[in-house]
Amino acid sequence: MTAVGGAVYDRGYRPYEGPRGGRSAARLALYLASIRRALGLRRSWRQKVAPFVLLGIVTIPAVINVGIAYLTRNTPGNQIRFITYRDYVGVSSALLVFVALVAPDIICPDRRQRVLPLLFSRPLTGFDYVLAKVAALTSILFAFSFLPQVLLFVGQALVSDSTLDYVRSNADITWKVAASCAVLAIYYAVIGVAVASLASRRIVAGASLIGLFLVSSIVSGVLVSGADAQANGSFGALVNVLALPLALRDVIFLGHIALPSRLAGVHDGAWAALGVYLGVLSIGVLTLYRRYRWTER
Amino acid sequence: MSQPLGATSEPAAAGAPLDPSFVPDPTIEVQDLSVWFGQKVALSELSCSFGAGVTGLLGPNGAGKTTLMRAVTGLIPVNQGRVLVAGADPRANREVYRRLALVPEDEAVPGGLTARGLVRYEAALHGLVDRSAPDRALERVGLLDVADRRVDGFSKGMRQRTKVAAALVVDPAVLVLDEPLNGADPVQRLALIQLFQALGAEGRTVIVSSHVLNEVERLADRIIVVVHGRLAAAGNQRAIRETMNDRPRHVLVRTDDGRRLAGGLVGLASVQGVTFEPLGIVVSTTQANELAAALPGVARDLSVRVREVRPLDDSLESLFRELTR
Amino acid sequence: MTLLRVEALTKRYGSVVALDALDAEVPRGLVGVVGANGAGKTTLFRILLGLAQPTAGRVEVVGIDVAADPIGVRSRLGYMPEHDCLPLDQTAADVVATFGELGGLPAKAARQRASDVLDLVGLDEARFRPIGGFSTGMRQRAKLAQAIVGDPELVLLDEPTAGLDPAGREEMLELVSRLGTFGISVLMSTHLLDDVQRICDHVLMIDAGRLVVAGPTASLLESSGGVTVDVGHDGGAELLRARLAADGLTVSVTDGELQLDQADDEALDRIIAAVAELGLPLYRMGPRTTSLDDVFLERAGR
Fold first, then answer.
1. Predicted local confidence at residue C87, as pLDDT
2. Residue A20: which of C83, C84, C105 has the nearest Cβ?
3. Is the pLDDT of residue A256 over 80?
4. Which of A158-162, B156-160, C188-192 is predicted most confidently?
5. Option in C85, C87, C109 nearest A18 (CB)
6. What 3-state class would DSSP assign to C57?
7. Cα B215 to chain center, whole Å?
8. Is some CB atom of chain A closer than 8 A to the CB atom of C291?
9. B125, burial (CB in 10 Å: exposed 0-12, middle 13-18, buried 19+)
10. Selected residue of C34, C158, C191, C239 to mutate for chain B interface (largest B Cβ count, 10 A)
């Protein structure tokens, strides 16, 4: 059977008639694009190494804990814990390295390569930009702290004598872990993005972040040991930008700040910690507001 | 009147027609010049010369124009061949080197300087003592009234002009400019074109590179075209076109009866083909002169009214297109 | 619908007046905005994108009052900045698709349109290569692609031919003029009147913040009538001049070419007859043209 006729089609321009989102769609798109960039998705394999290796590192304690629990499940020593949930919502250096790597990577190139004018030609305001970036980094940090916890919880539950009992008796852990991971994630995300917004070069931003964390913990250490603070704790511990959210974590888990935080014995230490926490966030947000205020007078 | 640089190499043998890539009284001679950067060959055995007046330097991006400009002003060493300015190697001879000025394409300017400051700085670098020289240079480029404003606040066009002033203050015998008209509005462009023409008329050797071909047409008496590091064409634009006779030229003829006229023209030996366009008929020929001579007669004999006769590839644009194909 | 309506638009930065009471009404199509760098073109673009507030006056783009809805207007516009602005480590397809999404397109549509427009601008083969490896011409085209990926009503092009060699420039101008056939209007800022003369239907000339010229290109270029004739440089010009003068035409010779005041049919016939009779070669004959350069110089009045 022979073909019926023939035709040549014009591959010209096709107008777009489909749905169009507005500001919120743009914001969401920026959020997702930033996450993709941070995790190296849609880019070469080399970009994926750092994030996923760090995720692996951060997961190791959970694996060890579950492993030990499993191995000792039938012996009297089965209460050995390698790490507690509270401790696990900690400041692992892996996470900090991740912040120092990722925050500059999603912020600095936009400025250095002069992509910002192009971004703001879209239905996006400076506020939307900041919101999307902070949300992206927060999400990633949250995931990186929370997922290992989930692994730990599920692993422990499965390995314990009765899964259901374990879950029931440890139910409160779930919200405590989630809340404290969120507290940490938001904090480091805002600091990370704010510091990164001050530099155009990623290396400078990354080094500044690490420097900020290190210096503040050193200074804090000096202040704390300077006073006769060994027994009673000291407000100097508030200067430690790095470890501040841990105080709030303690509050969430225990109702009060515990050792080894230097705030442990301080009267009203918890409120002070909350105050400084909010203060740091405010400074961060203010910095971002000034850096990305795109509409002029 | 600018001081001439001095003796040049031996003039061509009397009576011998000169290859258009050379001028009879050259200031700058480029002999078998090759320059490479690592694996990249920027210039490949290029030979030509430049003399007084304005020469346009053309070529696609990456063809080697900037390298040639730098080699000719002694800013880079050459890997093979040589560059002679007034018979001397600009990199070896300080006297000659000081009379060369290159105005590169928009590059960063040292921050914080005013226009006058920048020009004075340049003058000082060359050990100039004449205190009125900077102001005179600024006046020539039309920036005297803004001489005390900071250069980093200038628009691109004004920055370029400041750099031209900085080059002029040392009274160069050779002035090489890379895209000097970039960023200038039509009025500034005209002023600059007139300035360059005046500088050329003063006996200086002015070399201007630009991508805006219709301006090069106006500005330069002579053009040098570099493609892929080699010389693609040289000389007078019209004359170059004449030599490209194997490539057909196209002439647009607007008439009231294209078909009839086409019928009459097709019989001519000089006509290679006729195309029908919305605007009129386009006649292609390799013998433009013969066509021009025959056309009026054919139109008259056929009583076809001709409204317009327009050669389509007379411009430097079309010449350039042919050369870089 | 008018493309752009500007009423008494003024923009001041401190004591510097960037735009001074601009008044213009621009129809759809290809519009050239000409002026030197610093004349106010970029400021105008920023105001159109809702990125800067005017000090005074009103702006309406594609029917939207920019002051009322600065964000909304951006959904209908595309923007191609002059400087390099694309992330260098991502592929062209990824970048254009992402910017499509940032403009509000759903992800799948963005990806498909990205592919379409990259083909349109001639980057079909290179689209999975990182932009860092692109030449200037390719980068310009990628920038144009991201400007049209959202199927805007109007694109703002800031010096689209900057940095391009003659071949690249011609390709870019050809691409830009095709945008008109896609139903996309263009506001192209440039300091090259030649670009405008070649492809724009309408011109706005800005000098030091003031609008010195606004109107359709064709009417601006309307010659003052008359004809130019080129019969070569072998002395024929003078012969022809004498002959045509004897015929009653007003004719003079400038730069070896004849300039006639009359351009009616009878005059044209006389010219052809005279040239044929004298046996002169006819190289060129056509209406006396002005160029936009002349118009600008005249109107800018400096």
1. 93
2. C105
3. no
4. C188-192
5. C109
6. strand
7. 9
8. no
9. exposed
10. C191
DSSP-derived pairing of the beta strands C30-34 and C210-216: unpaired
Q: For the CA atoms of C80, C81, C85, C90, what is the dihedral angle to 10 degrees?
A: 10
- Whether A contacts C, i.e. 3 or more CB pairs less than 8 A apart, is yes
In our burial notation (b when 16+ CB lie closer than 10 A, e otherwise), range C269-291 reads ebbbbbbbeeebbbbbbbbeeee
Confidence (pLDDT) at A231: 54
Interface subset of C 200-219, CB within 8 angstroms of B: 207
Q: How far is the alpha carbon of C104 from chain B, nearest alpha carbon, in Å?
A: 35
The reply to whether ipTM tops 0.90 is no
CA distances from B180 to B106, B193, B272 (A): 9, 10, 41
pLDDT of residue A274: 84
User: What are chain B's partners, defined as 3 or more CB pairs within 8 angstroms?
Assistant: C
Q: What are phi and psi of C214, to 5 degrees?
A: -150, 125
Could you give the C-alpha distances from C126 to C121, C123, C171, in angstroms and in order?
11, 5, 17
Judged by CB atoms closer than 8 Å, whether chains meet at C151 and A15 is answered as yes
pLDDT average, residue stretch B116-139: 86
Confidence of residue A165 (pLDDT cuts 50, 70, 90): confident
Average pLDDT of span A123-149: 91
pLDDT category at B130 given cuts 50, 70, 90 is confident
Choice among A99-108, B100-109, C130-139 with the minimum mean pLDDT: B100-109
The per-residue pLDDT for range B273-307, each reduced to its tens digit, is 999 988 789 999 988 889 999 999 999 999 999 99
> Which among C194, C214, C188, C205 has a CA at the least distance from the CA of C79?
C188
Is the torsion defined by CA of B110, B114, B119, B125 positive or negative?
A: negative
Residue A154, Cβ neighbours under 10 Å: how many?
15
Give the tens place of pLDDT for each residue, C31-72. Answer: 999 887 666 888 899 899 988 889 999 999 998 999 898 888
Contacts of C99 in chain A (CB under 8 A): 118, 122
**Which of C136, C207, C268 is the closest to B305 by Cβ?**
C268
Question: Is the predicted pLDDT of residue B174 greater than 50, yes or no?
Answer: yes
What is the model's pLDDT at position C189?
Answer: 92
Determine the distance from the C-alpha atom of residue C253 to the mean position of all C-alpha atoms in its chain, rounded to a whole number.
33
Closest-CA distance of chain A to residue C215, Å:
27
Residue owning tokens 């386009």: B282
State residue A297's pLDDT score.
36
Q: In this complex, do B306 and C37 lie within 8 Å of one another by their Cβ atoms? A: no
Please tell me which of the candidates C207, C272, C297 has its beta carbon nearest to residue B300. Answer: C272
Give residues 18 to 57 of A whose Cβ lies within 8 Å of C. 18-23, 25-26, 29-30, 32-33, 42-43
Q: Whole-angstrom Cα distance, residue B210 to residue C152?
A: 34
pLDDT more than 90, % of chain B:
39
Distance of CA C146 to the CA centre of its chain: 20
Chain C segment 143-182 residues within 8 A of B by beta carbon are: 162-170
Q: Is C247 on the interface with A (CB under 8 A)?
A: no
Phi-psi region of C288 (alpha: psi -120 to 50; beta: other; left: phi over 0): beta
Which of A28-42, A83-97, C93-107 comes out lowest in average pLDDT?
A83-97
Distance between terminal CA atoms of chain B? Answer: 42
What is the distance in angstroms between the CA of the first residue and the CA of the last residue of chain C?
35
Q: Is B118 exposed, middle or buried (0-12, 13-18, 19+ CB in 10 A)?
A: buried
Chains in touch with C (3+ beta-carbon pairs under 8 Å) read: A, B
Q: Residues 174 to 193 of B: which have CB under 8 A from any C CB? A: 182-188, 190
Average pLDDT over residues C126-142: 93
Instruction: Please judge whether C281 and B289 are an interchain contact, meaning their C-beta atoms are less than 8 angstroms apart.
Output: yes
